[in-house]
Amino acid sequence: MSNAWLTSLGLLPLLGAFLVSVLPEKNTLLIKRAALGTTLVVAGVAIAMATQFQRDNVNFQFVETHQWIPSLGINYAVGVDGIALVLILLSVLLAPIVVLAGWNEALGGRWSVKTFYILLLILETMMIGVFASTDVFLFYVFFEAMLIPVYFLIGGYGSGARSAAAVKFLIYSLFGGLLMLASIIALYVLSGDQGGHTFDINALSHLHMSSTTENMLFLGFFIAFAIKAPVWPFHTWLPDAAESATPGTSVLLLGVLDKVGTFGMIRYCLTLFPHATKTFTPIILVLAVISIIYGAFLAIGQKDFKRLIAYTSISHFGFITMGIFAMTSQGQSGATLYMFNHGFSTAALFLVAGWMSSRRGSSRIADFGGLQRVTPVMAWVFFFAGMSSLALPGLSSFVSEFLVLVGTYTRYPVAAVIGAFGIVLAALYILIPVQRALHGPVTEGNENLPDLNLREKVAIAPVVAVILVLGFYPSPLLRVINPGAAHSIAQAGFSDPLSSIEKAGK
Amino acid sequence: MTTFIAPALSYSLLAPILIVLGGAVLGVIAEAFLSRAIRPTVQLSIALGTLVLALAQVWRIRHASSLTAAMSSVTVDGPAILLQGSVLIIAILGVFLIADQDHFTTLAAALPGSPEERDAQRAGEKLTEVYPLTLFAVAGMLLFPIATDLITLFVALEVLSLPLYLMAGLSRRRRLLSQEAALKYFLLGAFSSAFFLFGSAFLYGYSGSLSLAGIHTAVEASSGNQVFLLIGLAFLSVGLLFKVSAVPFHAWTPDVYQGAPTPVTAFMAAATKIAAFGAMLRIFYTAFANAYWEWRPLLTIIAVITMLFGAVVAIAQRDIKRMLAYSSIAHAGFLITGVLALNKSGLDATIFYLFAYGIATIGAFAIVTLVRDSSGEVTDMNRWAGLGKRSPFIATVFATLLLAFAGIPLTSGFIGKFSIFSAAYESGNKAVVVVGVLSSAIAAYFYIRVIVLMFFTDPLDDGTSVVIPSILTRATVIISFAVTIFLGVFPTPLLNFISSTAIFIR
After folding, report:
1. What is the pTM of this model?
2. Which of A161, A236, A269, B32 lies at 20 to 30 Å from A26 by C-alpha?
3. Is B410 within 8 Å of A152 when comparing Cβ atoms?
4. CA nearest A111: which of A142, A149, A78?
5. Closest-CA residue in chain B for A137?
6. Which of A17-31, A286-300, B129-143, B390-404 is predicted least confidently?
7. Distance from A444 to chain B by nearest Cα, in Å?
8. Domain boundaries, position A101
9. Which residues of chain A are within 8 Å of residue B457 when distances are taken between CB atoms?
10. Which chain B residues are Cβ-neighbours of A68 within 8 angstroms?
């Protein structure tokens, strides 16, 4: 049993999807309850698994390996390190929240409520799989296959130009994925030349290759992840997708799926191509800093809540990417913690924005005003989510943003300094809509908006709690992340720069 | 006076071809002597019985190998068995579709719109010549990949082509278009056969031998006139490339695919590719392997433009059959990269790809036969809008097959693409891999567009509907769907079988 944790975890949502598929189509309440129950069970199992995790062990844990396609050297191999564990936790914790918060969001879709939850549960399986794979081929399979349920979730249940947004999302991701496939093929052939075809990540990290080859392969992986994350200039699909998707889908899209990009950078770019990483770090840092500033500026100019959140995320992904490629253990831990925290703060923002727009029938910022007086609870939650997004000290994102900046400063002070301006801009892009929508006189059309109901309060409470608790006491998570983060830096052949005091001591 | 030596034939090895030819002759006799009422049933039984018997015989001799099965003019070896088996399986599925007589004209000899045609239609006549024609074509396809001298190759080429020219003109609706397609196919086909023959003559002049082994010896000794070799090789390739519809010899493909009755298109698209690529593999891997510097550069260019041209032009198509035709051109390009690899993995990958692609193709065309309005099949893509709503199952199967064409993981197409590109990379042909991956990305776009149409667009109210399939058509659809998924998830048995069997003997 001890080794079947990840497989069972991954199979549970699939089982739930099957259960949902045999329930009567008319009984939507039962379907929703089944979906919620499944995601809760999965979250419970994941937490139970996390308690078994040995924090100081930098090797993959809960490892399980079976032959899948032996003639191509492909294995079903899963296992987690601290980074992957945290991201799996993020996925499974967000899933029940999304189900509960978006209780009625499947109603406006092209297809039945049942199909919505089947797709959602299949997606959860794939989210777990993509973080748990330790076989590059298996990772690729999840990476590509998870596009399909998301595509149908956006195109089938979203609003506005949903099919166009879904297609744009799919084409961008497929294009990146195919570039990655070319690199994977090269890895496969190289490994065959050097002692047998394999896709095992540990074995592949010892491959010898010429620096040109390494650079090309690195780019294949990096562009795929940069599109996924998304990093400027590969970001243009995200605002459209986020605007058209249902709030729940957006939470999973920005909160979890995009993390596959940044996770992939750590797990694959750094581990497999350490030399190329060194070569490209300056360029990537420039892209990251541009993302931070560009995303923030565009967020300020947005008239629509959902697009605003999408652009803030581009800015935040810039921070994460900067933290990863700062090549310090602080930056790395900060980036991983950032991924987790960003998941929750974006979830809070998107869910409240979704409730606001479903009540008002519009997600334009200009249509709101004085919500604080009409719907105090909703207004306060939005305010709280906004504060978390601009990384107010005391809230979880502050810790991660601080770590990223400190980690980057020790090696790349210029990047850190320019990136820090993103914090200033964050205050603008959050406070302006907060002021317009929440404060001031109650504008026309908003007089009778109902406040959050019990279900919505229950859904948002854990998010608020996580943001608060981790803001004051992030160490449980950091203790899980740190060894893994330090290990990935060491594997890439870097060590933390010495501080001036340490230098003086030498 | 020389004594006459009776040719030694190993009948059991030739049995698959002989059985099919016997069945075809039996069909012709049945056509002449049986009453009209029982002909359809009898012909269908003969055709299916023959094919199944031949397939069983192929299975029986699966471990056999012989250079002298028919006085050195055919070689029975692993690849031969695999290709023959694939052709027969595709042919069985093709006959399942052909059994739906609604697609065929009642009286092929009558002029379109003539009183004779009307009378025949009123009498409810059925066109049963198509079965013996199919069997003759299959016999040619069985011979083509195993033939080892140029004369036998030519005969096989003609035996497989002539029935197909006729079959292309048998459509019941839009007969003029169908006859135009048949004529075009015939004229261009005749040209390409002439090229093939012309090339054979030069190769004979070069090597003094008509057998592939003799040519191989001449190439190895690099004796003879190199210019003759070059000319012979070029013209021989034209004949082959025409059959696989590689650019610039593809012009017939869209018109014939569109004009021919859809069951014939399905059979032809899948089976001809297998036979022609089978012959190509044998010719290039055995006779010309040592002259690769003569043909590889040119074939590389052809592969590249075929992939790109097929993918790009498919985007502009509005007709589903033409779209599938251009997609088949793109796939021909992918397959040529497998031939180019000129190594064991290239051989294995090409055979796997041929089988997987053939099965998916026949399923896709089977579904095209089902979408109809009162005047017959609806091939205008815009009228496929909302198919997902009308018939979720058929639309889902079609979407899956399209995703297989696009090479999405967990479908057979992905494993095929992966193995063929890795073989190409292994042979050092990295540029082709990059182009292949890029054209896959382009190709993904138009496959996805069809999915968007089916699922994300509201149905038009124009009488388009999915007819309830006959049992045989339904079987084809379900088998093709199941095989596509199965080979995507558990390709190991087939991959192992191919890699242990597919060894050319010389």
Report:
1. 0.90
2. A161
3. no
4. A149
5. B409
6. A17-31
7. 35
8. 2-505
9. 163
10. 492
